[in-house]
Specification:
With 296 residues, this protein is mainly alpha-helical. It contains 11 helices and 5 strands, in the order ααααααβββαββαααα. The strands form 2 sheets. A 3-stranded antiparallel beta sheet has the order 1-2-3.
Length: 296
């Protein structure tokens, strides 16, 4: 890597050497490559900060960075940023260096207030949106979808869920409806359950021919005329602020789904850890600890 380029250029160069878009993350785990455009953006920002730190301290660059410098940087960052940001910094740096770095705990207190919405709040928000965004909001709440996953909806008989994962047979216990698939983070395709009345409305908006949509720099083939991605997220937040005076963002609907489903499964006699693992798969997680964040 040429010395003394701008921190931004150094970060872009480092990421460009590791990027492998179009290859599903879950099918290429631990290969040291970046398979998501969103991850690439996050790593660029993280490495830019590390490059600036190195320049400020010794006028060097990322090409000659050492593990010791990385550890010092992360220790200082732990005083300033929350755990999620600190973990992203560590993951980007260890990818660049090609080594495993010790996990550092943030000393900055994280805001643990809930991001979930009640059913009544969701209905008020949906009623304040256009038809296509309103339906998307109700489906996201009903099935625990991410914003971009709304753009990827397909009937389950048209696309198979990812086969490299072992799916829990207890998924959707106690719920009735129609099964669809969505493509989530890292290219993971999973089944979701949508209530029959919402599925009927969704099928009424089936496109004769799929349309190509670009959202946050990623291409999607959309089969239904409903909201999704950034445009839907913005609509949701605006409607939430108008109706409720605040917005927890569209992602708050996933918090609602996880919390309500966990309670629902436990009420049917399922033990807490088993219920948490089941719900984790329903929303596209395989590490139960990841789902903990949704239970606050």
């Amino acid at each position: 890597m040429p010395r003394f380029r701008s921190a931004k250029s150094q970060a872009e160069h480092a990421v460009s050497n590791k990027i492998a878009l179009g290859q599903g993350r879950h099918d290429n785990r631990d290969d040291g490559r970046i398979h998501s455009l969103g991850t690439a953006r996050g790593y660029e920002q993280a490495l830019k900060g590390f490059a600036e730190y190195i320049q400020d301290h010794r006028m060097g660059d990322l090409g000659s960075a050492t593990v010791k410098e990385a550890e010092q940087y992360l220790a200082e960052r732990a005083l300033m940023v929350a755990q999620k940001t600190l973990d992203l910094d560590r993951q980007a740096i260890q990818m660049h260096l090609g080594v495993q770095l010790e996990v550092v705990k943030s000393e900055l207190e994280t805001n643990l207030t809930t991001r979930s919405y009640t059913a009544d709040q969701v209905e008020r928000i949906a009623s304040a949106q256009s038809d296509r965004n309103s339906l998307a909001t109700r489906i996201a709440y009903d099935a625990g979808l991410r914003a971009h996953e709304l753009l990827t909806l397909r009937p389950a008989d048209e696309r198979q869920a990812s086969t490299h994962r072992q799916w829990n047979a207890d998924r959707f216990t106690g719920r009735a409806g129609e099964r669809y698939t969505v493509k989530g983070k890292g290219g993971l395709v999973r089944e979701v359950m949508i209530s029959k009345h919402l599925s009927d409305r969704l099928e009424e908006r089936r496109l004769a021919d799929p349309k190509q949509v670009i959202d946050r720099g990623v291409n999607y083939s959309q089969h239904y005329d409903i909201g999704g991605g950034r445009a839907w997220s913005q609509s949701f937040s605006a409607a939430s602020k108008r109706e409720l005076g605040f917005s927890n963002g569209g992602h708050g609907l996933r918090h609602s789904y996880v919390q309500e489903r966990l309670e629902e499964l436990q009420s049917r006699g399922m033990q807490y850890e088993e219920a948490k693992g089941t719900v984790a798969q329903e929303v596209g997680h395989f590490a139960k600890n990841t789902t903990e964040a949704y239970l606050r």
